Each structure stands twice: as structure tokens, then as C-alpha cells.
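Project standup — Tuesday

K.O.: blocked on the structure for the chain from last sprint. Re-posting the sequence here as requested.
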Amino acid sequence: MIHLAEPHDAYLTAFESLRLIETSSQVADLRTQGFSRFSALGFPTTKLERWRFTNVAAIASSDFRLGEAEEVESSAVASYELEGVVGPQLVFVNGRFNAALSRTDDLPPGVEIGSLAEALTSKPETVLGHLGSLAQFNSQPFTALNTAFLHDGAVVHVSDHAIIEMPVHLLFLTTDTPDQMNHPRVLVIAGENSQVRVVESYVGLGNARYFTNAVTEVVVRDSAIVDHYKLTRDSAAAYHVGSTHVRLGRSSSFSSHSITLGGELVCNDVDAELMGEGGECTLNGLYLVDARRLVDNHTTIRHMNPHCASHELYKGILNDEARGVFNGKIIVAIDAQKTDAKQTNKALLLSEDAQINTKPELEIFADDVKCTHGATVGQLDEDALFYLRSRGLELDQARSVLIHAFASDLLQRITIDSIRLQLDAILLQQLRGSDGPTIYEQPA
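H.V.: unblocked you, prediction finished:
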């Protein structure tokens, strides 16, 4: 681990500039704690087990600057909206809320969405009781760094018994200004017996190199239902580190769908705690990676009470010299009897030089449980290819059919039609090459 006596000058300068922005003493204290902890931890190295296969030296050695507000045409935003869904949408440009590009009208009773920076000023009682309660940063340097630069992001608050039918879209855009960093924070609070669907989209508007460090906290009260999506479509030169922290109450349900299509280096962490009896957690993930890019997925599901269920399926498609990392851990506490947990990780290697490091883990301290996990790594089935070619398909067409079939199982789990159809179209478009898919492609 790198222990920094002093942080990089760029981070220290950015932190000092942020301290000049007036805020509550609680927020200022939280920022200071985060920066102090980041200074003590430093950036992680491959000597740590968590980062054994993921080298973040490129991030650690760069002097990124805090992103600034920039003008963005509405036409650029339209390319990344949820097609056919005219629902609430919050747009952030370089980590800063843009009210002109957002839609917050016609919300049902009991539903509030808006900018975190504004909520910290206007409704601190709604936010401060939860902010930082799930995303602990004592041993997580990137979470500590996000907390140090806590300023703006999104708040979605659904009161008890409230239901919002349309998905809430949180669109984070990064412009083509190079070497900028953004630290967005998302807080979702779902009250008892409430229902909400939240979509986080991270998009690069150009091909610039930048650093996004995102943290999401989701509070799921008793009997609430939260359906969460994270779509990562950063530029091919970008670094994206993100973590999602979830706490589930009694008889509640949380589902996560993580789709990674862009980024030079992408790390996605999900940590879910089933704190109430009868909770259910579902984690799905799909990533497509080529060239020499890397995608790292780490998940932890903690069963703390009896009669809870968790289901997890992650799939990766890797081409060229791409690398993938998957580490999935299920922890069953001593009191969590009657736990039903299943974890599956599958990777499809399209090149002899592609590589996946996968490590499924179970830690079971209860004796009356049903838990399974498994990992499968392989290439395209030669017999299936031969069969399809015998039916008149060219080699590239046969490959595309099999790759699409591998991914479609997970895409069918997406319940928002517009997202499923758009992702399916992107996948088909990226499977056009005769030498295998072009995994990353900016929209026209």
C-alpha cells in the first residue's frame, strides 16, 4: 500500500478549493475525514488482495483536476436518454447538476428527486442521516476520495407507500476536456412499501482521458422494491471507479443490473446487506471489453438474517488482449438460517490473449442453508460454429449468433424495455466485424 505523507498537489489544491464553498459543518467534517483517510491509505497497489489483478497506477500517477461546468447542447443529451421514456431525469455535466437539461416535473406524491448540493442546503435532515452511513471509507481509498470531494450528485427520496412508475434517469456526462476528475454521489432512499426504478448512466461525450469516481448508497426500507441499473459508456480512454452500497430491510427486494461497455479501466463494486428477515437481492452484470482494456467487478452479499435469498449472474465477453476480474463473495451470518444464495460467473474469451481472473467465495456460518456458486470460462463452441456454418452462415455471422446468444440471457433480465432494446441493438451493431466484435463504439 502507498502511504502518502501528503496527497498529490493536484488533489490537495482541489480539496482546498472545495473547502471555500460554503456548506454545513457536518458536510465539512465528513469531507475532512474522507480526505484525511485517503491521505493515510493512499492509492491501492497490486500487493493488496483486493487489487491483485487490477493496477491503478495510471490513476495514481496522474494529476487530475476537478471538472468544471460546461455548456452542452440538448442534442448531445438526447443520444443517451432512455428512448421512449419521458420520465424524470437529472443531468450532470462534469459532476455538476444542470437544471436546464433535466426533467423534474409531474412527480407523483411522495417522490422527490434533485441535486445533492441543493438538498444539503435546503433539506439537510433528509440527506445527512444517510449520507456516509453505508459507504464506509476506513479501508476503501476511492470511497474516501469521493467523500473528500463530496459536493454534488443525485438524491432520490421515495416516501413510505409511494410508487413511481416511470424510471428515474440519472445521466452523468463528461465532456471532452482532458484530465478532469469527477466524484458524483448518489443517494436513494426507498421508504416502507415503496417502489422505484433508478437508472445511472455514465457517458463520455468525446474520447478524452478522464477519471470518474462514483459512490451510490441505496437504503431499502421494509417491503420496499428497488430496481437499479448502472450503464457505463465512458470514453475508451477513461478510468471509472464506482461502488454501490445497499442495505435491505425486512421483506424488501433489490435488484441491480450493471452493464459496462466503455472505459479503459473500469472497477465496479457492489456491497449489499440483507438486514431484515425475508429480503431478496439480485445482482446481474454484463461487460464487453476489447483491446487492452480492463473491467473489474467485485461483489459482496451479506446475509445477516434468516429466510433471505440472493441470486447473482455476471457475464463477460472479452476480445483481443482484454482482461477481466470477477470476485464474488457471499457471507452467511450465524443467525441467517434458511438462506438461499446462488452465484454464477461466466466469461467468453474470443481471443487467445484475452484473460479473466475469477474468484467466487462463500463464507457460511449457519448450518441450515442452500448456497451454490460456480465459474465457467471458455471459448466459442466449435461444434456449434460448425453446425451454424453447415446451415449456410459465414464464420463471422456464426460467431455473432453465438456471442449474442451468450449475452441475451442476461439482457432478458432487464425489465425496462427501452434499455433492453437499446442494449440489444448496440450489441448487434458491435458484432458486425468479421474478426469478432468491436466492443466499444461511440454513437453517431
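K.O.: great, moving the ticket to review. The chain has a mean pLDDT of 91. The first strand starts at residue 65 and ends at 66.
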